[in-house]
């Protein structure tokens, strides 16, 4: 097996993992069950309840769409760079709007840092893959 093929398997796993995580995060707590914590974030920004619920659903659709990009553009470092930027921004947003969320189990710090690290590894693997070509 060539080095390039050895790099493709972990890259594929990373792409699928990030896609599943983003799609799950967009669908389950934002569309299917409309998490009260998600609604509270939008209300903290200044939206009334009915608009906050719409914003939660729309952000869920955006997250689902972003998750799909990992399946569509499997060799694009740009999606991982956006992932790192977006997750960092979302973490800052939570720090400003609801810092108590950072003290709970499986909180945004844990999830976001893990997903950022996975994207950083993907970028390194993509760079190695380009060097092998």
From TrEMBL:
It holds the Pfam family DoxX_3. InterPro entries: DoxX-like (IPR025695). Keywords: Membrane, Transmembrane, Transmembrane helix. The chain crosses the membrane at residues 12-32, 52-72, 84-103, 109-128. The lineage of its organism: Bacteria, Pseudomonadati, Pseudomonadota, Gammaproteobacteria, Moraxellales. It comes from Acinetobacter terrae. This is DoxX-like family protein.
């Amino acid at each position: 097996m060539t080095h390039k093929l050895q790099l493709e398997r972990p890259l594929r796993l990373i792409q699928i993992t990030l896609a599943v995580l983003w799609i799950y995060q967009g669908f389950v707590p934002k569309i299917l069950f409309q998490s009260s914590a998600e609604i509270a974030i939008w209300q903290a920004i200044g939206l009334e309840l009915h608009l906050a619920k719409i914003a939660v659903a729309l952000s869920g659709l955006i997250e689902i769409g972003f998750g799909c990009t990992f399946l569509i553009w499997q060799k694009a470092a740009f999606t991982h760079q956006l992932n790192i930027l977006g997750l960092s921004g979302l973490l800052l947003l939570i720090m400003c709007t609801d810092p108590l969320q950072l003290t709970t189990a499986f909180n945004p710090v844990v999830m976001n840092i893990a997903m950022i690290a996975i994207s950083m590894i993907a970028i390194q693997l993509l760079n190695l893959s380009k060097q092998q070509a």
